[in-house]
Amino acid sequence: MRRVGENPRRLPQHARHGSEGRRLLGEGRPGERAGSSGVSRVAKPDIIAYAATKGALDVFTLSLAKELGPRGITVNSVAPGIVDTDLNAGWLRGNEQAAQAAASVSALGRIGRPDDIAAVVAFLAGEDGRWVSGRVVDATGGSGL
11-20 and 48-68 are packed helices; what angle lies between their axes, rounded to 10 degrees? Predict the structure, then answer.
């Protein structure tokens, strides 16, 4: 499986490489995965540029899935919510008020963990995900419900 970057300016390059030199995953089923975000489906004026790049990845996922589908290549994107990663450490870790606010956004009442997202990616990359293509999979723990 190839992880396509999170920035749309690199998408044409990834599309070229994905079409020609793809990696094999699972039982030889080639695949691509783009990194989206739950933020592309909510109005967040304070991070409009970031949300726009994630929205571009969502549309890119659809188009690339259609282009590569005839070759048996699945293309999906995973849209995580707030996840406790080093990227979020500066505002999330050690700040109980921020952590509680972040957890309250999720219907599951907690902040996501990296293994929550990894499990979704593993499903899409594995044999069980062979019939899923062109989807942006919400892995936000039910954020915004």
Answer: 20
